[in-house]
Amino acid sequence: MRNYEITSDSHCYLIINAGFFLDNADNLEGYVLWTTEPNTQKQYNSLIASNINYGDFSLEKYACKRKTPYYAANAEFVDFLSNLKKLRELAGDHDQVTAYMRAIASIKAFPERLQNLGTLKRLPYCGEKIVFLFTLYSRGDYMSELAELRDKKQDN
To answer: What residues does the Crossover junction endonuclease MUS81-like HHH domain cover (predicted)?
Structure first.
């Protein structure tokens, strides 16, 4: 079991010696985690998952325990969810903004392209709404959801 030291630099933590290599980088270990706790150091005994593993991917509930690749395999779907999150933020739906942020972080960490709903349902913070949005996105009907939210924002 390896220990991972987390050092802080103004709310941005870099895990050192985690054995995670970014694309297009030689011998670069570690990845960035975001937190609200400044100037702290912690020890984590394990970043490897308990439930289902896809290589180094873990289904850990908390983002600080999941390895996240530099380039997301589901970048287009993440961009779609990010646009929805921004529209919710402009509309003042702060609870939904938090839900979108958690789902986006979970999907970004998944190392393979999402191809079925079963895999998406098993990811942390990906509930029925995210599954519904993935269905719309995969069919190409996602523009209607964005247009509906934009119209709602303009009405307010």
So the answer is: 73-131
DSSP string, 120-156: HHHSTT--HHHHHHHHHHHHT-HHHHHHHHHHHHHH-
Is pTM beyond 0.70? Reply is: no
Which of 7-16, 44-53, 60-69, 92-101 tops mean pLDDT?
92-101
Where in the chain are all domains bearing CATH 1.10.150.110? 75-155
Between residues 7 and 142, which one has the greater pLDDT?
142
- The two tokens of residue 112 are 């393979």
Strand partners, 43: 5
- What Cα–Cα distance (Å) separates residue 40 from each residue in 6, 35, 43, 85, 106? 8, 10, 10, 30, 24
Give the C-alpha separation, 54 to 71, whole Å. Answer: 16
- What distance in Å separates the CA atoms of residue 139 and residue 121, rounded to the nearest whole number? 18
Question: Any residues with CB less than 8 A from the CB of 36 and at least 6 apart, and which?
Answer: 11
Calculate the alpha carbon distances from 2 to 33, 48, 85, 105 in Å.
Answer: 18, 10, 36, 24
Alpha helices (H) along 16-141: 75-91, 94-109, 117-122, 128-139
The neighbour count for residue 71, using CB atoms within 10 Å, is: 9
